[in-house]
Design a protein that fits this description.
single chain; 84 residues; alpha+beta; three-stranded antiparallel beta sheet; 4 helices; 3 strands; globular; disordered C terminus
Length: 84
């Protein structure tokens, strides 16, 4: 048995849905709305997957907040207000 963890920005929605169903998390997600699932994946800033022998067994999605993005690019609400 081989465990691998990877960054997978293009994780297919079908694989994500499959792991949700197998983990019972599908009970709290709109898995019938593939477009919504695809949007969740597309809007993630980082997707890390865990696979055992190639089979997806775990997914972690991360999204940066707007506040974190403002800090990262050197802008902030206070500096924007000051310029007005």
């Amino acid at each position: 048995m081989t465990l691998s963890c990877s960054i997978e920005p293009d994780l297919p929605a079908a694989e994500f849905i499959d792991v949700l169903v197998r983990s019972t998390l599908a009970e709290r997600r709109t898995i019938q709305q593939t477009g919504t699932i695809r949007k969740m994946l597309n809007q993630a800033d980082l997707i890390v997957t865990a696979r055992v022998d190639g089979r997806l067994v775990g997914v972690s999605r991360a999204a940066a907040s707007a506040a974190a993005s403002a800090v990262a690019d050197g802008s902030s609400a206070s500096s924007s207000s000051a310029a007005s």
